[in-house]
Here is the input.
Amino acid sequence: MLGEFYFVDPRLDLVPSEHLASDGIDEAFAAALAERPGWSRGRVALLEEGIALYWDRLESLAARAPHLRPPRLRNVGVVRTPESVRPYAQILNESTWTIYLSDLDPEHSHAELVAYLLAIGDRMTETGEILRTAVHLAPWWFERSEAERSAFTRAASLSTRPDAALYREIAAAIPWLRELRHEVLRPVRQPRGHRSIPGTGLLVPRALQDEPDRLVEGMRVAASSTLEAFHRHHRDDGSVARADLLEWLADEAPPLVVTDAEQRVLWDAVRAGDVEALSKRLEPAGTAAIGDIAADLERIAVHTRRFLASVKDPASLPAPESTTAQGGYAFLHRERRRIGYNLDEPGIERLFGPALPYAREMLGARTAHEWAHLAVDAGWVPRSADDVEWTKRRARLVRGLDEVIRRAPRAEREAFTPDLGALSRKGSPGDGLADVLELRLPDFQANLLASRYESVLERETYVRQNVRSLRREYPPATKLRQLVRYLYELQYLRFSAVPNALEYFLAMTGFDDDFLATGLLSEEDLEELSSAASALCDAHAVDESRFFPPA
Here is the structure.
C-alpha cells in the first residue's frame, strides 16, 4: 500500500480510488485511515454511505437521462486544514473529489450532503465551471423524499466548510429545483412556455424563469467570497521570507530561471545577485506563498544538478527546440537551456497562497521529465528494436485499429466518419492512427529516463496527474484519436505502484462508458490494442553509455 503517497501532505488525507468501490472503502484502507490520520469509525462510515448514495442515485438517473454521466470512482481528497488549500482547485488534475474533514463529522454532517458533494464535484469537473452546476443537477432532487431533503438542508446549515454559504444557497433552492421539468425524466405535454437549458434536458416553467439566474448569482457571490477569504488569510507581510529567498538565490545561484506572465526573465543564475526584478514581483506574496516558491526552486535545483551529474557529457545536450512549450509546473527555457519557473503560471496562483497538495511532487517530476526530453532529442533513448521488428509491431497495432473501425456500430461510425479521410491519407485509418501514437513516443522515452530521477512520490503523482478523462478535449468526430491517446496514456501506469492498472485506468478516465459500453471496443479489443501499444513503447531503451548511475 502506498501509505506515504496517500498521506504525504499533512493538509490532506487521500482516499485513493483503487481502495474504493461503489459501496465504500475496502477493509485494508479503512484500517489505514483509523491508524494513520486517526479517523473514527463514524467518519469512515459516513464517507462510505455517501459514496453508496452517490453511486446508486447517479447510476439510476444516468440510465434514464442521456444528459447525465454515469457515476465513476475517483480519489477522495479530504482537506484537514481548510485555510491552507485553495478552494475549487483541482487536486491531481481532475482525478480527485475534494471535500473537507468537517463534511465527514457524524454529529453535524450527513450522507445526503456527502453524496451531493460528490455528484456536484463530477459536474464541476465535466463542465470546468462552478456556477451553473446546481441548476444542471436539478434532477438529483426530483425523487428525494422530504426526510432526505431535510437531512441535506440541516447538514448544509451546520456546515463549517469554507464555502458553506454556497450549499445553503442550493438548499434554499431545492423547492423550485424540484418543480423543473425534464425532457425524459419529467416530460411535459405542452412545452410552450418552458425555457430549455441547453445540454441538460431541463425545462423551466414560465413561473420559475428567473430562479436559475438567481441561484447562479447567489453561487457566484458565495464562491467569490470563499476565494477572497482564502486570499485574505494569506495576505500577510512576506518581507522576511522574501529577503531569505533572495539571499539564498544570490548566494547559491541554483541552476534555473524565474519568469513572469510575459515570459520575461526575472532572475537567472548567470546574474545571481541581480534580484531587483524578482523582488518587485514578489511584493504581493505572503509568507506561505514565498515559502512554497522557495521550496519549489530548491526542488528544481536538486533535480537539475542530479540529472546533469549523471550525464557523462552535458555539453553535448542539444539546445531546446524553438517549439518547446514555455509553461506548466516547470519547463525548459528555450534561450537559457535551464528549467524555467513561471511565477504567474495560469491556474497555479503561486503568488497568492500555499501550493496545492502534490504540486511540489509534480514539479519535481516535471523537472526530471523536461531534462529527459532533452536527452531524448539527443538520441540517448533510442529505438532498440531493428526495423524489421519495429515494422512487425507497428503492423499489429494497425491491424487491430482497422478491425475495430471495420466492426464499429453504426452510430459510432457516423460520428467519426468525417475524420477517416484525414487518417487515411497515407494508408488505412489504422495506419494514420498508428502515426498519431508514434508522435507521442518521445514522451514515453522521456518518461523511461525520467523515472530514474524521480522519487516514488513524484513518479506516482506524475502518473495520476496524467491518467484522467479526455472527454472534454476530443469532440465526437475525433473519437478514434482519443482512443489512441488513451492507449498511450495507459502506458503511464507501468511507472506506478497502482495494484491493478486497468481497473484504475477505467475508473479515472470513464473509458468503459465511452468505448466499451458503446460497443466500439470489446474488452478483448482493449487488451489486444493496449498490448500492441505497449510493444511499441517496449521497443525503446536508455543508452547506458551516456550516463553514470544517478547518485
